[in-house]
Structure formats: C-alpha cells, structure tokens
C-alpha cells in the first residue's frame, strides 16, 4: 500500500538523520523504533489519516494532532517536547511558515478582552492545581536556586517591589494584576495603596474576595478595567506578564500611557517575556502557530531591543535591565511537575482536550526558555530625564541586585 511505502521511507530517513528514543505504534499492531535507544516517547497512531502529522512534523502539526486526539503520546512531558522538536528541526527547513515569522495582528479592546478571558477564565480551580499558593502566574525568582515554588514567587514579588523602592503610603498601579498576589503583598508588607486591574472576571472576583478576607479593602482596589481607561497618577507602576498581550505595534502607546499615569518622581517596572529573535519573530517550527491557536490568542513578543525602543518612544528612561530567562525555565519546570502530579484532577476540571493543550504548552515553554527561543526581562524605568528624589542606589551593589530583605508587615495606612 502507498502509505506503507511512504512510512517506511519516512522511518528510514529519520534513522539516517537522527537518533531518537521514539517508537511509533500503528492501529494494525505494527510498531517502528526510530533508533536503537530505549523509547522514552511512544506515539500511537489510531488511523492511517493521522500519519500526515508525522510526515510533516512541525510542532504545530504534532501538537494539533495530539490535542485533537488524532494521535496519543506517552512519555514524560520534557521528553515529548524534546523528541518533537528534534523531529521538526531534523526534517523541516527553518524557512517560510516554520521560521520565526512575525504575525501581524489587528487589535481592539474587545479582541484583547476576549483573548484574556479565553486564557485566564478557564477556572480558578484549574490554576490552583499547579500554580503556587498565592496564584502567581509569572516567572518566579530563585535567589539561591533551591527555593520551592511558593518561596520563589514571594521572592519575585519582593524583588519587584524593592527594585521600584516601594515605600509605605506609596500609590501602586499593577497592570494585569492576575489573582491579586502582588498588590496584596505590597499592601501587607510595604504599606502601599494599590490599584490592580485585569480583564479577567474570574481573576477580579477572586482577588476582591481575597482582599476582603484579609481586611485590606482600605488599601486595595481591584478593577475589571482596560489599561487604556485608567486615570489618575501613581507613585509606582508594575506591569507583570502583561505587555505580551499589548501587541508590538502598540508598545510605544502602551508605555506612553504608563508614562502619563506616573508621578514626576515615580518608578515603573516592566516584567515580561520577550522574543530572542532580532526581528521579534515568534518561536520556530510552528510552535508560535500552536500557541496562537490553542493557548494565547493575539500574543506577541518583542525583542528586548524593540521593547527598550518603545519605552524610550513612550517617554520613559531605562535605569536597569535584568535577564531572568533561567528563572523562568525553572518556574515552568516546576509548573509542569505540579500539573502532571494533578493530571486526573486537571482532566476532571477542564476536560481531556484542555489538559492536552496545557500539558504541551507548559512543557513547551520550559523547553523554549531553556533553548533561548524566548526570554524574560525585568526593566526599571522613570520619566525620561528624571531620577526619583527618594531613590538612592546602594553602595557596592548593582542597582536592583541588592540582597533581598525579608518581608515584614508594616502598619496599614489609614
């Protein structure tokens, strides 16, 4: 049969080029070992029609086939992603749709809100199964390298708040506040007056409930609000895991809006994922296409150079830049471990299809950060030409790399 000859030719070609711990098991009981290695990954093909994803094994094709149940995959998530990438990079040319393309996305407030709600309004219980106890959905900070996820996320919040020199009584705007962890930490341990905004109804409802339970309603205002609609002036502004949703073309306007909300002596921290492609292209071999379709609609990652340019165009001056790529690789690895450990509960809450999407997505993110396909930068800014009067740079330490102080509760502002 035609498919048998094509499959034999494909398998022979793979064996000649690659050494993969991979076995392919067919619907008719036949199986193919792609090398002499013990198979760490087993791909089960229940029907002849599913062979097409193997013959053109982009990460998008393989991921879509797995998500839609056209193939089944057995193995540890890291091994699955590694083998999938080896198949793609070993058989496809890094050009055209498989290269690091730049996707031009038309945006609006309604589209942005729909994209945010698609990603975040799965259910709070879903995220609680694999995030830390405070539901911090962004890169953690492993100061010593041996912290567990809960401690590493607290240290990340302290790192951010200490970099912006948050003081008791300061007003803080957190753009994309998630489930409220950062503003709650800022109010509890730094005595700040906080506004947190999100477009996710689930996140806003959860955060408001937490604020009320902790007795922090006099210090924290959680709003279901687009950043473009925020008014007022703030001493400090944080944007954590948010500018990935803004769109590359909109970044100068985004930072100009932040600048307009910032007090004359204020400080801004932008903590966000960036592309490591010089042209701000998405991750290769169809990985970006998979994420756009199944996980993060309308997400765009700028190169750090483009992000810095946009900050300058928005009237901000950069004081400090730090690359936390290795920290995000570790964060994603821990998320994957927790996700796998709670696989049955995840399926019960979200269904098998969404479980498959997130299983591939989280493991793929860990791989992408490890491979330097994407990165994570914290950038501290002030209004161009101004240095905050209250900010003193510690002697003997690079700005932002002072040893973290332990959080301690301060009297609540009245």
TrEMBL record:
Pfam families per the UniProt record, alphabetical: CMAS, DUF7884
Record-annotated active site: 365
UniProt KW S-adenosyl-L-methionine keyword: yes
SUPFAM superfamilies from the UniProt entry: S-adenosyl-L-methionine-dependent methyltransferases
GO molecular function, one term: methyltransferase activity
Species the sequence originates in: Undibacterium jejuense
UniProt-recorded name of the protein: Class I SAM-dependent methyltransferase
Biological process according to GO: lipid biosynthetic process; methylation
Annotated DUF7884 domain residues: 14-81
Keywords: Lipid metabolism, Methyltransferase, S-adenosyl-L-methionine, Transferase
